[in-house]
Structures are given as structure tokens and as C-alpha cells.
């Protein structure tokens, strides 16, 4: 029996012309104002016109499919569905049943889970798969064997770019995408997951100077989880730090939230306040990372 694997991710506009439709879907059908559209388009322009997320995700999905086939030839059928950009989850999921696949594993390319992020992917996938398919959800996987080791190695590599004489006034800031604070009232443990994963990676990297921050908060009237990384950078500099390693542990590939929010926006703040900022390398389609994803799926199967 072939087991389906539905890999899911946020999605990104393919071309600059796709940004408005993409932004409208994010806003649940409400077109962005000209000012908001211009701002987002401008951010994409600063990282090359569009985000490399689509290509990075495609490489991760292809790598996972190849790894699974190498371990269990013909046992898995891997397909990709996006939350906000074609191919959409709702369009891809029904194709499993159409092809006679009755067991599907759902994996979101995000190590932490939340009621307002990864859980929404699973709800949409379950509804789209229909009653004839048994759906097996993979929740948070930041604690999967080997994942934090990968992060720790990247932290160590980034720290090596800081002069040894300044290591005592340096710190690692682990960050993830902020979400509206209202999830906390619902008992969502998303913040606890971030701190636990940061603590684990720091321990494996052999560092004691570390902290967590949030980034990429949305533009809504509701308050979002903080503190924001830009505020944290200013506070760290005021406390005497000279160097910071940014580790966006909540993201698994290069895309807007890394290439703009960290490499451009956070870097501008760091330059302004005289703080040396370096970032850990993204996982992308690193063979070891793909192997961990393969392990996660195999364990669920």
C-alpha cells in the first residue's frame, strides 16, 4: 500500500505581478491598500524581486521524496500543497483519494506548532482530503532527533565569525515568527516550544549567553507576541553587548522573513546602534536536514 505524504508550507508569490493576489489571500479576500502593497512589493524588490522560498521548498520536497524512496522504494507518494499560493492545499489534497491513496501523512515545514499556524494547515488538509482518507498529522517536530544538532552546528559556525576577544560580550538570539497574543489565552504553548528549542540548541552548542525574540509580526490591531527582535537588539546593545548571532530557528529556508526581516531590517538597526550582527545559515535542502524530515515521516508511518 502506498502512503501519501502531504508536505505543506506558507507559499510565496512566484513573480512580482503575483504579489497582490497573494497578499489578498493572506488577508482572507480583502485586497491590500496601495500603501501596504507598495511596502510588500518593495521588500521583495530588496531581496531580488521575489522570495526564493518556492525554489527552496521545492528542493526540500524533492529531497524528502528521494530520501523516502531510497529507504522504502515505492512506499510513499510525496506531494506539496501551499497555504497561500498555488498549488494550494485544497487543490492537491483531493488528488490522493483520486489516485486511490487512503492513508496520508501531513507534514508542515515549520518546526514549532500553533493553533494559529500549523494547526490551520492540518484543518484545511483534513477537510480537503475527505472522508475516504485517513489523515495522520505530524505536529511540532523541533525535538526530532538530530534537528537541534543541526541548529547548534550553525550557531557554532556563526559564532566563529565573531572575534575571539569579543565572545564574552556576544549573545545568540533565537527567533520565530510572532503570532497574535490571543493564542496565549487559549493555552497555546508556541512560546514554550521556542524557548525549549532555543535552550536545547544552546546547550548542544555549548553556549550560555542566549535569549529568544519574536519577529515578522503582522499589521493588525491585535497585539502580537513580543519582544520584537528589533527592540531586543537595541536593549542588548544598551546592556553592553558588542556582537549578536541571529538564529531564526523557527524558519527552515531562506525567504522574506529571513532575507529581509533579518538580513536587511535587523542589520540596519544593528548598524545604526553599533552592534555587530551575524546570522546562522538557513537549512534549505541540506542533506542532513532532509534526512531528519525523512526520519520524522518514517516514524509517523
Q: List the quaternary state of the chains.
A: single chain
Distance between the termini: 12 Å
Sketch the topology as an H/E string, one letter per element.
Answer: EHHHEHEHEHEHHEHEHHEH
- Reported by name, the CATH topology of the largest domain is Rossmann fold
Are there runs of 5+ residues with pLDDT below 50, and where? none
**CATH architecture field of the largest domain:** 3-Layer(aba) Sandwich
Report the top-level CATH class of the largest domain: Alpha Beta
Strand order of the largest sheet: 2-1-3-4
> How would you characterize the largest beta sheet?
4 strands, parallel
Helix coverage percent of residues? 40-55%
Helices, by number, come to 12
Instruction: Give the tally of structural domains.
Output: 2
Amino acid at each position: 500500500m502506498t502512503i501519501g505524504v502531504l508536505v505543506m508550507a506558507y507559499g510565496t508569490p512566484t513573480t512580482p505581478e503575483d504579489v497582490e493576489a497573494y497578499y489578498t489571500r493572506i488577508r482572507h479576500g480583502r485586497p491590500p491598500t496601495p500603501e501596504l502593497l507598495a511596502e510588500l512589493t518593495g521588500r521583495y524588490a530588496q531581496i531580488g524581486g521575489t522570495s526564493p522560498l518556492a525554489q527552496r521548498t521545492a528542493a526540500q520536497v524533492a529531497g524528502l521524496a528521494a530520501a523516502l524512496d531510497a529507504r522504502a522504494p515505492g512506499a510513499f507518494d510525496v506531494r506539496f500543497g501551499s497555504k497561500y499560493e498555488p498549488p494550494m492545499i485544497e487543490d492537491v489534497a483531493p488528488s490522493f483519494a483520486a489516485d486511490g491513496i487512503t492513508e496520508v501523512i501531513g507534514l508542515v515545514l515549520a518546526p514549532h506548532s500553533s493553533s494559529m499556524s500549523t494547526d490551520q494547515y492540518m484543518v484545511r488538509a483534513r477537510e480537503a482530503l475527505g472522508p475516504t482518507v485517513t489523515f495522520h498529522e505530524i505536529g511540532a517536530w523541533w525535538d526530532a532527533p538530530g534537528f537541534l544538532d543541526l541548529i547548534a552546528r550553525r550557531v557554532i559556525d556563526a559564532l566563529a565569525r565573531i572575534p575571539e576577544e569579543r565572545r564574552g560580550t556576544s549573545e545568540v538570539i533565537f527567533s520565530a515568527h510572532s503570532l497574535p497574543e490571543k493564542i496565549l489565552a487559549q493555552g497555546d504553548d508556541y512560546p514554550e516550544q521556542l524557548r525549549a528549542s532555543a535552550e536545547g540548541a544552546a546547550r548542544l552548542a555549548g553556549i550560555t549567553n542566549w535569549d529568544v525574540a519574536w519577529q515578522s509580526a503582522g499589521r493588525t490591531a491585535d497585539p502580537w507576541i513580543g519582544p520584537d527582535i528589533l527592540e531586543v537588539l537595541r536593549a542588548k546593545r544598551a546592556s553592553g553587548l558588542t556582537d549578536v548571532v541571529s538564529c531564526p530557528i523557527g524558519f527552515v529556508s531562506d525567504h522574506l522573513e529571513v532575507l529581509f526581516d533579518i538580513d536587511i531590517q535587523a542589520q540596519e538597526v544593528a548598524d545604526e546602534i553599533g552592534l555587530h550582527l551575524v546570522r546562522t545559515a538557513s537549512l534549505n535542502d541540506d542533506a542532513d536536514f532532509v534526512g531528519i524530515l525523512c526520519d520524522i515521516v518514517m516514524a509517523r508511518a
